[in-house]
Amino acid sequence: MRKNSIKNTRINGEVQRELSEIIRAEIKDPRVAGAMISVVSVEVTPDLKYCKAYISVLGGTDAAADAIAGLKNAVGYIRRELAHRINLRNTPEISFILDQSIEYGVHMSRLIDEVAKDLKEGPSDEAGE
């Protein structure tokens, strides 16, 4: 099975959907339950042995570090729940990776809005002088 096969893409989507549901509803750890966590993407290897889950945490860097630590602490429970929910030959070993692309996008959008606002206000001030 190639890495970008249709089967692998389908498995990635199913694992992502189930991981986000498990994290949202099942994890009781306050480091995880108190944070706004989203599963951005999931990459399962073609042999179904390993899985990289890219996690985005809304909040500061401290909240992100705590959430990742809480998820790594609960990885055994998450893997067992994933095995119950998805019928796969092997249940992959999950590694959580912090993905800051959403936070970076929000930051860049704010900067663009500020520049656009300054450009809009700038010419009207000069015309009045």
Account of the 3D structure:
This protein has 129 residues and is of the alpha+beta class. The chain folds into two domains: 6-98, K homology (KH) domain (GMP Synthetase, Chain A, domain 3); 101-129. 59% of the residues lie in helices and 19% in strands. It is built from five helices and three strands, in the order H-H-E-E-H-H-E-H. The protein has a three-stranded mixed β-sheet with strand order 1-2-3, with helices on both faces. Helix 1 (6-25) crosses helix 4 (75-85).
Give the C-alpha Rg: 20 Å
pLDDT < 50 runs, ≥5 residues: none
Assembly context of the chains: single chain
| Topology-level CATH name of the largest domain | GMP Synthetase, Chain A, domain 3
Count of DSSP H/I helices: 5
- Our count of domains comes out at 2
Number of strands: 3
List its traits.
alpha+beta, GMP Synthetase, Chain A, domain 3, 2 domains, 3-stranded mixed beta sheet, 59% helix
Short précis:
With 129 residues, the protein is α+β, with helices and mostly antiparallel strands. Helix content is 59%, strand content 19%.
Strand and helix map with partners:
Elements: H1 6-25, H2 30-33, E1 36-44, E2 50-58, H3 61-73, H4 75-85, E3 93-98, H5 101-128
Parallel strand pairs: 2-3
Antiparallel strand pairs: 1-2
Helix pairs in contact: 1-4
